[in-house]
């Protein structure tokens, strides 16, 4: 890292620090200084210590613009080849997501395209999606595998995920999603597939340094609770954290299962019941809300937002960016949907893509503005924090800084 490039100073910004347990943590006319990629000082501009005078020559005057922590998209499937616009048309004509999947489309259609792509092609197809997120303020990104469903292909996907982080100068956390769909060659050999993922792929990919967490699609058209449990036991044996696509289309009690394994997050949750919410609360598992797929599938059953709120389950918001249920390349649009469709407040939506998203990735060095944390910062063409959820379409980020370096 070039130390000169990883330091800087912004003056006269409207800081939303999110530093306390509640609220925006606003500092009007605030300044923020960073060195070696970490926040060195923040507070009222008028109180900036003289120690930072050397940074004044290159300081940026924000003229009252909003400054927040870099946004964190903690649930994406953005590495894949091809697209599924045809399925979008089929669904508009009445076909259901599940029926398309059972007929060999859906996830398996993307598996065919992704298997056919080499690493260069996969990177070229995926980078623009990551760039679109970054351009509007995302400085930390989670990316899942799960569209190759064979070991060479899953390896390729996870490598591409890491390369995206290197290429864009942002942090990418990888998740192995081997139990996403049953690949055709394992038809009628489900148990063999689950065993292969648990006892061979997972330890191998972990040794390669490609797995930060483990996920499964626990669903009627995915994998059962028992199969998911086997995977979680294998992950635990390797010391890897888990998360789960839980209770999206039906209630297989995925939230409770995730909580039992102290999952980082339980994701979707449209069909989660009161016992599931209580289990998440007791385990401290984050509820990862994905309004993009709810919108695309034209779901009507809402996640139990009021119960999650009452139980003080931390709620995160993510894009779920994927070719089937969420061709959504904007985390801010997901924030808007979380407010409009799920009834979150703009404050909850912002905490959901910062503080709570960081927690869902077990990253305690970001998601807030405080001394010593990573200098992941976004200066917005906005003044009020609610504007981040309010404006729909286009980009609002003016300047994006990741680990102290300007990336947009
Ligand atoms: O999170 N549910 C499983 N995975 C994705 C959808 C994947 C796809 O349809 O390609 C999701 O919604
Ligand atoms: Fe997903």
UniProtKB/TrEMBL annotation:
Q: Which free-text remark accompanies the cofactor?
A: Binds 1 zinc or iron ion per subunit.
Q: Molecular function terms in GO for this entry?
A: imidazolonepropionase activity; iron ion binding; zinc ion binding
EC code: 3.5.2.7
Q: Localized where?
A: Cytoplasm
Positions bound to Fe(3+): 75, 77, 245, 320
Q: Which InterPro entries does the record match to this protein?
A: Amidohydro-rel (IPR006680), HutI (IPR005920), Metal-dep_hydrolase_composite (IPR011059), Metal_Hydrolase (IPR032466)
Gene Ontology CC, one term = cytoplasm
**Matching SUPFAM superfamilies, A to Z?**
Composite domain of metallo-dependent hydrolases, Metallo-dependent hydrolases
User: Which residues are noted in the entry as 4-imidazolone-5-propanoate-binding?
Assistant: 84, 147, 180, 248, 325
Name of this chain's protein: Imidazolonepropionase
Q: Which organism is it from?
A: Metallibacterium scheffleri
